Amino acid sequence: xxxxxxIAVIAATAAGCATMRAAATRSTEEMLAAAGFHMEAxxxxxxxxxxxxxxxxxxxxxxxxxxxxxxxxDPNVCHCLYVGGDGEYQAYERLRLQQDIADQxxxxxxxxxxxxPWPWWP
Length: 122
Fold this sequence. Notes:
Blueprint: H1 2-35, E1 38-41, H2 45-53, E2 60-64, E3 67-74, E4 80-84, H3 86-109
Helix pairs in contact: 1-3
């Protein structure tokens, strides 16, 4: 019985981690799209193989058609590649910085007040 419970806990944890990773990926892809990156679907076996050869979920510089570009491969969620130039990358970095600042302000502004974890918490 304990073995079954242990396996169930491991499976639930793995599913939760996968869900959190997919949500983070979608959030990044929304920022990339807002910054002007365009999505290229991996709709052929050749494109899919190329996509899977790239390090996933990281914005990296790459030369495409002799021009500098920034790419974000997502082989798991959308099976696509986000592509943008220097201007789009700069816009993405601004959006990412703004999101980081908003997250920090939200955390700092949280007033626990009476919502302490335990009644004896100072």
